[in-house]
Amino acid sequence: MILLTVAGAWSIYRTFAGEPEVGFFRSEEGRTEYVKHYSDAMAKLPAPSATHDVRTDFGVVRVYEWSSPETADTVPVALVPGRSSGVPMWEANLAGFAKERRVLAFDALGDAGLSVQSTPFRSFEDQAVWIDQVLAEVAPDGVHLVGHSFGGATAAAYARAHPERVHSLTLMEPVFTFGYPPVKMLWWATVATLPGMPDGIRKHALAQIGGGEDGGDDPVALMIEAGSKHFSAQLPTPSTLSDAEIRRLTMPTYVAVAGADSLFGGESALDRAQELLPDGQIQVWKHATHSLPMQEAIPLDTLLDTFWAAAER
Length: 313
Fold this sequence. Notes:
This protein is an alpha/beta fold. The protein contains twelve helices and eleven strands.
């Protein structure tokens, strides 16, 4: 426990007092391990129809595209991943999303994945800059934006900055956006990414975040574990939105909240979302945990297809 307390204090100091840097793999061996699991997980997805490496002010962003002649002219769905994961985290969702729509998914700058950060972030709002530069190239007429966990906070930041490009906003278990995560869950999230943490403790921390289940030999779970262990992310912590900022999310917005082991922020966050979103649908998935997109992939496929169609009318 003393080890965890000291390590946690060090992490908090780095977050709030350290000089901003770019995200990096701590070793070539660590990157190799992560890329192996990333590749294994990508192999379980439908083959992308295109791969783009888009240069932005903060680095080069890896973007995968799934489209066909039937979906090429649809409003694209753009997917923003959670921490320490990357595009393969959408394995359970992607085939369903891509049946009727063009889909774009990218690895986040400053975090584990195949995107390469070159310039430090000075504030969380910088996330909106690189996303806008990516979408200006691959989806200039706007998207249905979807984010999970930290990616939900990122998606909300982009929607505030560029509402004209967001046909709809889907936030699955977004952290910090409407309220602060429970202290217990925030603690486990910190432990999971600390350098030098024993593998057993790291696995336990990731299991707590994901709902208490060990991912075993699943490639996505192994990828997230390797990203947490080997990548030093340099990402500003999101700020909880003010009432006025929530009210500025005027596009159709769907918010999915886990019924157990949620990082959403509890009843107060739920109340704020329900009361303040101008065009919001908020749903609590009783049996889901923070891994909600994977656990509820089939019903989400039908629900979101209907939601996106309604947003276009």
